Amino acid sequence: MNVKTIAQIGGDGIGPEVVKQGRKAADAAMAGSGTELRWREFPWGAGHYRSTGEILPENAVEELSHCDSIYLGAIGDPSVKPGVLERGILLTLRFAFDMYVNLRPARAFPKVPIPIEGAAEKGIDLLVVRENTEDLYMGLGGTGDGEIDQIIEAKRGLYNLTGHVSMSTGHRMALQMGIATEPAVRRITATACGYARGRGERSILLATKANAMPHLYGFWEEIAADEAKGQGMAMETMNVDAMCYHAVRRPWEFGTILCPNLFGDIVSDLFAGITGGLGVAAGGNQGDGIGMFEPIHGSAPDIAGTDSANPLAAILSASLMLRSLGEGKGATAIERAVETFLNESDQDRLPKEMGGQAGTEEIGDSVASIIERDREGKQP
């Protein structure tokens, strides 16, 4: 029996509820496959922080390094200052395990309302490949009353960055630094080319803003274009503001989109909204080792415990996780089951955010049952 150990972090709000349903689907997909999923549950999130005063224990990275993947529900709670848990858990783990790829697929699903007339009929199936360790998300900068003078340090899988910044304006000020390095741009570009090739595409599209920020994003364009050429893939560019404009007019024209960190965060949420909302928006953080998979949505504490959360995004994130572990058959089984569930469900059995009355648990049970039914070759 092949064993894969999965670190389960339910997190906050609806996180534990939706992760439970994704776990059901993953276990159902792996049943009889020769691969066993062994789950290790970790309590990290707002509750752990309030009770212990620590965001992550000192041995967290070491504990997780013995797992094959991380499956996360959601992080964030009104009782904790915004950013504390997000930086302390999400960014810490992304950087510690050098998860330099953030994958955010966006596609039109059956019966999921799309806000753009005619888009569902034309079909939407795109993939945002977001660089996940650099750009303006490095956490470098500071504030000052007239001047800033500080040491700059950052540890990444590719390098240890050190430096010093000193400047003055005579006014209260803030500085946020964005960094791009050639090896980081090359590896994410190569990754995007690989996904595009697997999707049967001949080119990738880079989201940029080199006209306004030539040093950072002009560098990105230069390196990415050279790497794409070496990968045998054409590359087009589009300013990120223009991309947002065209996305809501012709979303069906987009395929594989390569993005620096900040732009990727923004446009992936836009495409999620275009394709029906965060309830069907899966996400994955990957590198050359352990990955972390999570729905794009937040913790939604206002509906926690009400059986109202839509678990489909978490279930689809479990599919991304299985695919990253080399379990493509199981991943496909989950994706097909989600489509079948939406196709077969009457309006009142759809998730509540889609106008139905189905609860979180019912949806998870339905998807898992479809996976089992398909495996056994039974008729609906």
Descriptors:
380 residues, alpha/beta, Rossmann fold, 10-stranded mixed β-sheet, two-stranded antiparallel sheet, 12 helices, 12 strands
What does this structure look like?
The protein is built from 12 helices and 12 strands. It is of the alpha/beta class and about 375 residues long. It has 3 domains: about 1-100 and about 285-380, Isopropylmalate Dehydrogenase (3-Layer(aba) Sandwich); about 115-135 and about 180-275, Rossmann fold; about 140-175, no CATH class. It has a 10-stranded mixed beta sheet with strand order 2-1-3-12-11-4-5-10-8-9, sandwiched between helices. Helix 8 (about 240-245) packs parallel to helix 9 (about 260-275) and helix 10 (about 310-325) runs antiparallel to helix 11 (about 330-345). The chain is globular. The two termini are about 30 Å apart. The model has no long low-confidence stretch (mean pLDDT about 95). GO terms for molecular function: magnesium ion binding; NAD binding; oxidoreductase activity, acting on the CH-OH group of donors, NAD or NADP as acceptor. Keywords: Manganese, Metal-binding, NAD, Oxidoreductase. This is 3-isopropylmalate dehydrogenase. Its cofactor is Mg(2+); Mn(2+).
